[in-house]
Please model this.
Amino acid sequence: MNLLEEIKKYLIYFNEIGLEVIPTTNNLIKFLQSENFLSENGLDNLKNSILTCEKCPLHRVRKQAIWGEGNINSQLMIISEYPNKDEDFYGRPFVGQIEDLLKRMLQAIKLKKEDFFITHAVKCKTPGGRPPEKEEIEACKPYLLKQIKYIKPKLILALGFTPPKIFLENNPTFSSIRGKVFKIKRNISIIFTYHPNYILKNPAVKRMVWEDLQKFRKLYEELFKTS
Ligand code: SF4
Model:
């Protein structure tokens, strides 16, 4: 049940027990008018839209669309590519071997999965695990951009070849952009590196990923004034 539905339920309850005036405080009024309150409801609506979306042909292939998981208040986001068949089955990003590797990658920079909100660039799995088509990425792009708008991350770690197709124009080569810091808005930085699935199949990229993660950590310390 979302927050608005819960409030409605309480209002009906107050009405049923004969209360005509609801006791309130300035703090409650401020909270109801606050951006966080609006964002939470916006996020609930957005989540429903994603879970029921049929905007592109991938809805016929998926078991379920995947919203994401993790801490929406942390100001850190991980954006993965598109769900694989296990993620599609369990309805969450990063399961099995790729989850273990992601955890180890984050441990190496003194962070945990729980420090992030984690989602996919494209919310539904593709036939046979092929990369999503341009039209599918375009159809799904507004969902990711809205998640970013509501969650307001300061720093994003983007994994794999799909996220650059959302954020960067002219289709640059991955090798030319990985490990560099891009701004997707004045106050949102993003670093691209290889996806754990790719690392498992191509161990030679481990060193590059290590370098990219060190840059991510440095930026994290600068932005959050920690070490
Ligand atoms: Fe909708 Fe995105 Fe799934 Fe396509 S991939 S059906 S646009 S949620």
